[in-house]
Amino acid sequence: MTPNMSADEIKALVLEKLLQVAPDIEPAQLDTATPIRDQYDFDSMDFLHFAIALGQQCQLEIPEHDYRELQSVDGAVDYLVKHSNGNAAAK
Amino acid sequence: MSEFRLPSLGADMDDATLREWFVKPGDTVKNGDIVAAVETNKGIIDIEIFEGGTIEQIMVQPDEKVPVGAVLALYRTEHESEVKRLTPEPATHPFNKERASQPERTPEPESTSAEAPLRKRISPAARKRARELGIDPDTLSGTGPDGAVTLDDVLAGAGPAAPVTKPATQPELSRAGMRQVIAAAMARSKREIPHYYLSTTIDMTPALDWLEARNTQRPLPERMVYAALLLKAVAMAVKKIPEMNGYFADGQVQLDTDVHIGVAISLRTGGLVVPALHNVTKKSLDQLMPDFFDLVDRARSGHLRASELQDGTITVTSLGEQGVETVFPIIYPPQIAIVGFGSLVDRVIPVAGKPAVRRVINASLAADHRVSDGHRGGLFLAEINRLLQEPESL
Hints:
Chain A is mainly alpha-helical. Chain A contains three helices and no strands.
């Protein structure tokens, strides 16, 4: 991701990573404001995969105590917008 | 020439569809190499060979469905004797476990009764007894489910020869199929195993604090989940209370010295698979975590290994992620114990005589009363608790 990516582009990226981890998720039916695990069978291993993918994509070292901010898609987008400014693009 | 056969991946598996060969005639293989992938009700499973040699001939083509014990390929070992007939992994029987647990597996000759490529359905106990009695199970008529030969049938002696069923050619993997597999194993467990149940509450605060401090110093992919601590604690507790680790079959208990923990993993498509994490006591936490991660991934994406479906000596199930506080687990036969963990919850408990808010987890045990008594089970849970209070010792 690049520093000047829009929130929509970041959201698309978050959804892409999420679907890679949990292909059974229906993006159209996902409530992006609600924790993913409240809507789908999304366990701690899935979450770890998701966090690793986001961290790698955005070249971001996500500390463990920030995990709670990544529980929903909107939360993850906000977190990435907030923390990735200035980070070089991974891709 | 030696025969590479389709191994049994549990008492509940009868056949599999060959999906892919990773070797071709002329290729050399070594002990532990994955040579083929098959599709079963448990998903795509990678089959290993446990002897080195050269592949001579492929006997089963992709998309062919074959029964357990069918010869998949012929190979020549380095020290091949023309008359010797070897099987890479004899159909799983609990009492084969001491061999299965050795790092270097060496196949051993199988009796002729197991050589028919189209095996009749027969329980492991019945097969063993038939071999001991010198009876060919194919000559018996089975009274078990789907005509399976049961121990009683063997004991009743030889009956009229039953026609051997032809393997079907169409592959199938369905939710219903996995449901049947689970149903058969759990019905057998509830029918045969006199369970006793114990539970205790474990203060996880020290373990979680220790884990957090450890994870802070590591990049995300190297961080550990607390479930890895639970697995290690269970495995180490077995060292003290060995009656929880092994098998009960054919009226006998066989304890195992190695600890291969079957990890209950739910699948996205529904259903459950319980692959084994090998040699948990021998692995440091740093080794255990990537192995655990990899196992969960492969359980969900396919390509579990045959040995992982065969080798579990005790099972751990964790339903905490769904908010369940206490699990009342059912033993996975022919194992003799299963440990269940609920979710981490905050509770006010006394610490040094004063009320304190702590993160606690409920640990439950279901164990086979034919093998152990509640007193030993209680000591087992107490030992798990003790170990988790000293996470640095794990």
